[in-house]
Amino acid sequence: MTALLELTDVRASYGARAVLHGVSLSVPERGIVALLGANGAGKTTTLRAVTAGVRWSGDIAFRGRSLRGMSTEDVVRGGIAHVPEGRGICTELTVDENLKLGSHLRRDLAEVRKDYDRVFEYFPLLKERRRLSASTLSGGEQQMLALARALLMRPRLILLDEPSLGLAPMVVRSIFDIIRTLNEADGVAVLLVEQNARIALDLSSTAYVLEVGRIAVRGESAELQGNEAVRRSYLGY
Amino acid sequence: MQEFFQQVVSGVAIGGIFASLALALVLIYNAMGLVNFAQGEMAMLATFVALTLINRGVSYWLALPLTLLIAFAGGVAIQRVVIRPVERAPLLALVIITLGLATLLNGLAGFIFGYVPRSFPSPFSADTVDVVGVFISYRDLGVIAVSGLVLLAIYFLLQRTTLGLTMRAAAHHPEASRLLGVRVSWMLALGWGLASAVGAVSGVMVAPILLLEPNMMQSIIIYAFAAAVLGGIESPLGAVVGGLIVGVTINLAGAYVPGVGGDLQLAVGLAIIIAVLVLRPNGLFGRAAVRRV
Lengths: 237, 293
What we know:
Chain A is of the alpha/beta class.
């Protein structure tokens, strides 16, 4: 397995406050990796480091090339979709316009059209609401819109920050089903940050547990699920 | 009655001029939450560029698009050189920078072109045409047509093109837009360029009426502020409607309210600003600022 995304000893800080103290992890091509940990452990910061939302040192490489010094726009254009904390929906715009922002850089128009068909097949609700302002969508619908928009970017890797946050269990399940489908059908790799460890371990093949800015545990997801000591001390269930 | 309608049509023409400058203000306000106090001076300088081109023998209809291009480039340059380095400064600092910029551009125009008012050609004849009993000058019709076309072009660009979509996204949601690959900083520069070009239209349209000199836009910018505030400062459509209302209002007030013609006309503009801010702070098209607590 070749690593698609490789973080090596990444350190990051907000002003004087250091948040990451040397995080190393890797996401294989076509893999789903979960990044777990308590609030404030540095999960979101790890994702933000990848898309240049925070200054970092150490090394981050995507498809074998270092992302050092690259702007957010260039990292994203290189094939990484980042669905941030809070979903990053443009509430001033319509559902349709949000989707267009996902595909606006693509020139393979025939493929884009196919992707729109797929998006509306996965999320029929978005099709009905195309012309409405995105601000009228519920939390779950906004999460679907964010995922749909990420899909339209045709990324090699999707960074997902707490997709389950604030959503009803039913909605969470359908969203995770779609993430699995995207991964299996398109071979999109996923780096998933989650509070809900149980559902994240179900979906992922590998998992890392962050503890105050350091990787405390790394293992196969199935193994971690079965390991009661790890579950108790790090995952809280 | 006939005179009334004539005043209304002239009001619409002058309103189109206000609307262009108000739209320029709204474009920059939307992009960065900043009222650009230098917008009028930028338009004035662009008008001097147009006059220079025309005096060199360039035909009016070639000089106009050339001027808009130069104004666009100038707007982009101002954003890159003056605004971008202080992008993250507090809003008050930015406001003071635009005020400084206004003074600088005003002085620069005085230094290069002098303060003697110059006549500026209008491509439209001063004759009038009889439209069902109302005499309308070709000049008014021309101004209405040119500002109308410019406003339509901006609407089309913002609402119907991908570039416009990314500009709107960058203005309202810079962080989310970056994550979608939008080059936010360049979109801001484009916004400044566009605002500068739209503002230049107002300068070129008003110059034949007022005579061109460095302080030409100082009253126009007040009316443009009134129009933008009336429309709700965030709304391009509001700027246009506000511009028309302000234009018609001051024209009618000038014609029918004793003593308002001339100097007091500006006071009507200021009165509109104050009335809107007191009675309806979000303007006609602005949304109420609702914050979830």
